[in-house]
């Protein structure tokens, strides 16, 4: 991050402890970093290192045991449950390794769901969902249910659903983890394009070093600590 860039996200002294039987398991401790507006940041680390938990805390889905998270001037750590839900709904788009599409609904209906839940008019919402399906290259598949779509198509629908609310922050947790290498590459390219086109700030947890190298910055989470590494130094 350039010193002149104002951080949109600040993580200060973050700690997460899980109770394990009679003892405490410290997942990570004293994590501090900043993310500038418009950055695409990869978080790498072994399974169990805490990447998903970190994203959950940043997205106000989970609470830290200690430390603070700020999004712009909003202190996420102090939000009530209702305020945290409002923040998630307004500011954050989530994409997970599993798409979590509702199987009984079409691609169009799945993408429209976040706006329908806000009470937006159905006709207007369907038009918006249709446009987002075009954005992800699936306008011809809008009336197919999720089970009729390939894995890559399902993840594209999930991405459209995440972005229809026009969030400022995109959190993606292993978004290509369940896909073959060719499909994964096309999905990552789409994420990168949408990141640029919609001026998102994106945090992507990934095992895929090839994708991490294409991000602007890389943080490695290891043994409860975080360190920044140059993308080009990651293994091929």
Kindly describe this structure.
α3 crosses α4. This protein has 7 helices and 10 strands. The longest helix has 17 residues. With 236 residues, it is an alpha/beta fold. Strands 6-7-8-3-9-10 form a 6-stranded mixed sheet. The chain is globular. The chain has a single domain, classed as Rossmann fold.
In brief, what are we looking at here?
It contains 7 helices and 10 strands. It has 236 residues and is of the alpha/beta class.
Protein topology:
Layout: E1 7-20, E2 23-36, E3 40-44, H1 51-58, E4 66-71, E5 74-75, H2 81-91, E6 92-95, H3 107-117, H4 122-135, H5 151-163, E7 169-173, H6 181-197, E8 201-205, H7 209-212, E9 217-222, E10 225-229
Parallel strand pairs: 3-8, 3-9, 6-7, 7-8
Antiparallel strand pairs: 1-2, 1-4, 4-5, 9-10
Helix pairs in contact: 3-4, 3-5, 4-5, 5-6
Note the main attributes of this structure.
4-stranded antiparallel sheet; globular; 236 residues; alpha/beta; single chain; 10 strands; Rossmann fold
User: What profile does the largest beta sheet have?
Assistant: 6 strands, mixed
What's the CATH topology label? Rossmann fold
- Pick out the low-confidence regions: none
Classification by helices and strands: alpha/beta
**What number of domains?**
1
N to C succession of SSEs = EEEHEEHEHHHEHEHEE
CATH class: Alpha Beta
Q: End-to-end distance, in Å?
A: 24 Å
| CATH superfamily caption | P-loop containing nucleotide triphosphate hydrolases
What's the overall average pLDDT, rounded? 90
Please count the helical segments.
7
Portion in helices: 25-40%
| Total number of strands | 10
Cα-atom Rg, whole angstroms?
Answer: 18 Å
* CATH architecture field: 3-Layer(aba) Sandwich
